[in-house]
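new request in #modeling-help
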Amino acid sequence: MRLHHFHVAAYLEKAASTSSSPPSISSPSLSSFAALPLGALQCLRPLAPKISFPEKRKMVVLPEFARVRNASRLLTCTVPASGTTRWNPSPDQIKVLEMLYRGGMRTPNSFQIEQITEELGKYGRIEGKNVFYWFQNHKARERQKQKRAALLTLSTTTSSLPEAETKDGLGKEEASSSEDASSRKRRCRAWGDVHGDVTTTAGAGAEVVADCTDDVTLELFPLSPQGKAN
Amino acid sequence: MRLHHFHVAAYLEKAASTSSSPPSISSPSLSSFAALPLGALQCLRPLAPKISFPEKRKMVVLPEFARVRNASRLLTCTVPASGTTRWNPSPDQIKVLEMLYRGGMRTPNSFQIEQITEELGKYGRIEGKNVFYWFQNHKARERQKQKRAALLTLSTTTSSLPEAETKDGLGKEEASSSEDASSRKRRCRAWGDVHGDVTTTAGAGAEVVADCTDDVTLELFPLSPQGKAN
DNA sequence: GCAAATTAATGATTTATTCAAG
DNA sequence: CTTGAATAAATCATTAATTTGC
């Protein structure tokens, strides 16, 4: 039914062609902003907006990441084994995650994520983002599931529908029972600091870099998106 | 004006009292996990609200994180002064950001954000997240503005409304005009790798690691939320 | 039995909303 | 009222299941 494969095919074709030029990363000294890689204001192409960056990935980390997207499965389905594309949780990992979820954890902070990641690392490759995403998705889908269920229940048991949902939404279900769910507050998150950097900055010719103190336990940073040019 | 402070106060009070005893995590098979700090399954209260890190700067990562959750600003709401609450972009910073935006940048990747942050750091305190959020918000609000405008235009010029929007949204406007909006593809982002460290702290003492090739330019990490217990 | 073709799950991103500081 | 910060909802894309033709 779905044309997923077509999509993929087209996708890959494109991928193959693109080249990427991530910016020549000149030294971050920022002497001149103009020199910033920044994809030249990201205007790379006047017209091509959406581009999906051929380069997409890594700069920072995972080299294998890149490799994967190219050919990997065009040929056969077998994967290179080393750096697959996306995280595939092992049963044990899932077990732990679900345990935590049932325990009441919903949105672990960076520290917690770190801890969990470490723990789960014992059972297979995993990164913090995986944990983060897992909780987001699980929470959302669990809620969604409940919603649907509740709706069904309502429609079958009672006849009065206090609220008409546009489609199937349920007002505000209560997620898990535990937790008093006090007032709904939003609070700051704990972002890692990008770099020691910046702050002082003072003048202009900063050498910067500086830090890189290897001792860093780990750097956290929310940064989310990627060059996408929407 | 607003009573925000009260909210915070109440919130904090609660925080002080709770202690949290997460369900005894009967470890399925993963022995060590139980020992994890993890804030005990996060059953504890969402930590301190907004704190604005008193001394943020370099410390690189989470040490302060921990500190924060404890007491930090339970006392008064007033902020220490050094670390104000939220980022307040200087005119120069905004100028640069808008320039980039007009240049076409919409969703800078982690590397770009880093670069920008460094650059803007010259004009005042700023962190990567600020840049990240700025683009998110600017993009969203710009679009929103356009939407509204487009809608108005439509309603005044033409009379036929192809689509009825629930409120005011426009189906799928094209953001900026230029751009061919080729196939909409989504690509991977560049997360920092969490582990790397892992090993050391690892509760079980697994050596693992392996990679950790120090070459990493910087560690990025999206982590978003925080303990919230919904 | 198996591999291509689908379909169902779910990992990863992006967009829309909401909250609250200034 | 503007807008930085944070979260939730909506989407997209890839992988595992499952089905189907041989």
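bot summary: The domain at 91-155 of chain A is CATH 1.10.10 (Arc Repressor Mutant, subunit A).
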